[in-house]
Amino acid sequence: MSLLAVPNVSEGRDFARLDRLEVALGKEITLLDRHADLDHHRAVFTLAGPAESLAEALSGLAGAATVEIDMTAWQGLHPAIGALDVCPVVWLSEKRRKMAGEVAKEVGAAIGAMGVPVFLYGDLASGPDRRERAYFRAGGIDALWQRMTSGALKPDFGPGQPHPTAGATLVTARAPLAAFNLELATDDLRVAREIAAAIRESPDEGIPGVRAIGLALSTGRAQVSTNVHDPIGTPLSEIIGAVQEEAALRGTAVVEAELIGLIPEAALEDYPEDVPIRDFDPSFHVIERRLKPRGESG
Questions:
Q1: Which architecture, in CATH terms, is 178-290?
Q2: 3-state SS class at 177
Q3: What is the pLDDT of residues 22-35, one digit of tens each?
Q4: pTM, whole model, 2 decimals?
Q5: DSSP single-letter state for residue 277
Q6: Other CB atoms within 10 Å distance of the CB of residue 54
Q7: In this structure, which topology does domain 3-174 adopt according to CATH?
Q8: What does residue 220 show for φ and ψ, rounded to 5 degrees?
Q9: Active site residues per annotation
Q10: DSSP of 99-168
Q11: Mind listing the pLDDT tens digit for each residue in 59-87?
C-alpha cells in the first residue's frame, strides 16, 4: 500500500450514517479501522491504498459528509469546525512524503470545489501561524464565520466563508501520529485540564510534539486527550509516565488508555502493563502488522 489517510468526521453516534459514509469511500481502498466516540461525537477512519484511489476515496467521503452532517446542530466534546473536520494523508517513509503532499493538495482542491473551504495545516501550511489545527478551531465554528467573512482568515481552497452546514475542512500530509487518550480516576475536569496543560508542548515546557486537552466524559471520568506527533521518538510509555506523575500530584491516577486508529510498532516500546489500552489488539492496531508487503520497497 502506498499511503494511509486518517479522515475525521463529526459524527460518532449515528452508526447508520457512519455506514453510509463508509460506503462513500468506495472499494478501491482498504479500510483498516473505523473508530467512533459518543462523547467526542467523532469518528476516525484509517484507510490504505495507492495515491489515486486514496484521493478518490477521500473526495467521496468529503462529498457524503457534506450531505450527511449538519454542523449547525453538532455538539461534541472534541473541537471541530467541519463535517469532514480533518483529512490527513499519511506517509510511512520519506520516499513517499512528496506524494502524500500532492495527494493532500489534490483532495483539498476537490473539497474546495464542493463549496467547502479548506485550510492546509502542518507541513503544508502557508504560514507559521497556520500550522496548528487549534489556530483554525479557536472559538469554534461561530468564530470561524466571523474571521472568514471579515476577511481575516482566507482558505487555501474553496469559498471565502464556511459551507452553510458542512463548515470547513483541515487538510495536511504527515507522518503517523498517535491519537492517545488517558482516563483518570476522577470526574474533575479541572484536574484533566491542568494535566493537559502541563504535558502539552509549549515554548518553555511540556513534551515536544504533544498536543493535549482535558475533557469530562459521560462515564464519570475525566480524560486527558492527546495527539503525539512523533510516537516513535516519544513512545506512549513516556506520555503515560508524564500523566501519571501529574495525576499523582493532584491525588488521582491513570485508570485506562484509549487508542484512536493505528500506531507504529515502536510507539509501544516499554509500554507499562498496569495501564491497559481498552479493546487494543496489536495484530489489528499496529500499522506494520496490518500492512502486508505487496512487492514494493521503501
A1: 2-Layer Sandwich (3.30)
A2: coil
A3: 999 999 999 999 99
A4: 0.93
A5: B
A6: 29
A7: Formiminotransferase-cyclodeaminase; Chain B, domain 1 (3.30.990)
A8: 95, 10
A9: 78
A10: HHHHHHHHHHHHHHHTT--EEE-GGG-SSGGGSSHHHHHTTHHHHHHHHHHTTSS--SBS-SS-BTTTB-
A11: 999 999 999 999 999 999 999 999 999 99
